[in-house]
Amino acid sequence: MLLFIKNMHNDTKNAQQTKTMTQKPKSLRQKIRNSSAKQRIASSMFAVLLLLGFVSMPIVSAQNYQQQINDLRDQNSEIKEDVGELEDEASSLEDKIGRLQQRINNIQAQINDNRDKIEELNKRVVEAEAELDKQRGLLGANIRTMYLEGDVSTLEMLASSKDLSEFVDKEQYRTAVQNKIKTTLDTITTLKHELNTKKETVQQRVVEQQSLNADLGAKRAENNQLLSLNEGEQAKLDSKIKKTNKRIEELKRLQAVENMRLFGGGAGTIGGGGYPWGRAKCIHTGQVDGWCSNYDWAVGGSIWNFSTGGYGYRNCTDWVSFRVRSTGKFVPSGMGNANNWDDRAPGKGFKVSSTPKAGAAAVSNGGYYGHVMYVEAVNSDGSIVISDYNRAGTGKYATSTVSASGLRFVYF
């Protein structure tokens, strides 16, 4: 447009110059004027067409391409975030709200159970401390008795006794007091160990309680947010949930293939290893055996096993949590998918190493979700005997001897 305006200005200027031309015939002046006008019109039209061409031409630059790449990366990150959180596994918004409410109820029940256990443990701690004080008092009295008796020699005791029978009684009494001191010392040692164990358990329960309370608050907030959505937003979220579920199912199928490639096998045993929930039914098919979409095995309508920390029934994470807890140790809630365990464990106070150890959780980061196994034993050649669940995506128990190479080990 600027070029067009400039040409119009030139037109005016040329017209003024034309008027001052000297002694040219009118017909010649007219010819010059007509010729100049045609040139100017052609020039102006070319400028307009050139300008229109620039306007309609798409401007493509490296910056635009980079922005598109960044947008795609952001979308991919959002998808990964959605897939990584199993709370999004639902067929609809109504289903998701129902599951959230079920999880809220389960978390609240676990919080209540934890509170009762903490109170009971604190009561036992008080009782143990009282018994410890009592035993210490008895120990002091017995030591004083032995100290006084220790000043009397055997000959003096014999001389001061009325007869042999009284001497024997005194000797037996001294032996009994000595035995009592030893027994009391053993009792105090045991009480101290039990007291420390109870205090550690209380502390673990308190930490888990804090985590559960935070989880409960987040779930309630999410539930309230979902309930406040309008119909259009609900339909949009339903569509997103369905797409996410398809992606989740495909990723988990690929994870099962990767697990079998890394660790072999695939047949497994239903309900093996002493796992109490090994025959939980697939919430989608109602069957115990066979592939279950999204690894959704359920007990009492819930796919989350809050007695082991809130992991999925018949999943590898739930098996390892159960197996570790069966030895008297502790796996906290919130460890996430299998490939999160070695990342999150240090923040929860547990050591992670590349050295295998019986009783540790063996973490594989292969595949999208990874896989976690329980180390049953370490062989002399460095290989490990592991037990796991859901290696092939069928929720079954299996054991294998595998290489420890490339695995990370969490010591609970």
Task: Based on the model shown, name its key terms.
412 residues, alpha+beta, Helix Hairpins, endopeptidase fold (from Nostoc punctiforme), six-stranded antiparallel beta sheet, two-stranded antiparallel ribbon, 9 helices, 9% strand, disordered N terminus
Topology:
Elements: H1 2-19, H2 26-56, H3 62-84, H4 93-150, H5 154-160, H6 164-227, H7 231-263, E1 281-282, E2 297-298, E3 304-305, E4 311-312, H8 316-325, H9 341-344, E5 351-353, E6 361-364, E7 371-378, E8 384-389, E9 397-402, E10 408-411
Antiparallel strand pairs: 1-2, 3-4, 5-10, 6-7, 6-10, 7-8, 8-9
Helix pairs in contact: 1-2, 3-7, 4-6
Molecular structure report:
The chain has 412 residues and is α+β, with helices and mostly antiparallel strands. The chain has three domains: 2-57; 93-225, Helix Hairpins (Orthogonal Bundle); 271-411, endopeptidase fold (from Nostoc punctiforme). It is 60% helix and 9% strand. The chain has nine helices and ten strands. The protein has helices at residues 2-19, 26-56, 62-84, 93-150, 154-160, 164-227, 231-263, 316-325, 341-344; strands at 281-282, 297-298, 304-305, 311-312, 351-353, 361-364, 371-378, 384-389, 397-402, 408-411. The strands form three sheets. It has a six-stranded antiparallel sheet with strand order 5-10-6-7-8-9. A two-stranded antiparallel ribbon has the order 1-2. The protein has a two-stranded antiparallel sheet with strand order 3-4. Strand 8 (384-389) and strand 9 form a beta hairpin. Helix 1 packs antiparallel against helix 2, helix 3 packs across helix 7 and helix 4 packs antiparallel against helix 6. The chain is globular and about 100 Å long. 22% of the residues are buried.
